[in-house]
Target: Putative pterin-4-alpha-carbinolamine dehydratase
Amino acid sequence: MSPEKLSPQAIEGELETLQDWTLREDGAAIFRSFRFRTFSQAFGFMAECALVAERLNHHPEWFNVYSRVDVTLTTHHVSGLTVQDFKLARAMDRAARRGD
Ligand SMILES: C[C@H](O)[C@H](O)[C@H]1CNC2=NC(N)=NC(=O)C2=N1
Model:
């Protein structure tokens, strides 16, 4: 059963629990730029998140340059946000704290 597209109100509620993420202008994605001390830490973060994404069957759109990883989360099959995006965002926040 694929998750339902979240309403703007539900998205607002979810974002209140995720201080470091911002809602994209079109309201269909959330964004965070992670900063690490080294490239190795950034890549280790990506490797850990890749395994989480596979487990959730929900995958990020991300860009890495050196110690920075920019992440955009959206649910392609509803062209918007679902609980899967916020579940992955929380997992990524946890992984980033471990990588510090
Ligand atoms: C077939 C497979 O379940 C789908 O392609 C999954 C895979 N990962 C996904 N990731 C994201 N971000 N959005 C999706 O809609 C999505 N769908």
Remarks:
- The beta strands are 22-23, 30-35, 61-65, 68-73.
- The mean pLDDT is 96.
